[in-house]
Amino acid sequence: MTVGIEYRYSQFEKEDFSDVFPIPIGLATTTPSFHTVRIDAKYKFN
């Protein structure tokens, strides 16, 4: 039996939504990022 853990951090490009909405440039921006933790357990039958 094996047990594992994996951590992943993903950060994506900054996005400006000011052109979609009638607001000043740079007021509606976002930099999406994710933290992901994965735990797995495997059992091997012989």
Q: Can you describe what's shown?
A:
The termini are close together. The chain has one domain. The mean pLDDT is 89. It is an all-beta fold and 46 residues long. The strands form 2 sheets. A two-stranded antiparallel sheet has the order 1-4. The chain has a two-stranded antiparallel sheet with strand order 2-3.
Element layout with pairings:
Blueprint: E1 2-11, E2 15-16, E3 29-30, E4 33-42
Radius of gyration: 20 Å
Envelope shape: rod-shaped
| Largest sheet properties | 2 strands, antiparallel
Percentage of residues assigned to helices:
under 10%
> Could you list the spans in which at least 5 consecutive residues all have pLDDT below 50?
none
| Protein structure class | mainly beta
Work out the count of structural domains. Answer: 1
N-C termini distance: 11 Å
Topology pattern, helix = H, strand = E? EEEE
Main-sheet strand order equals: 1-4
Beta content: over 45%
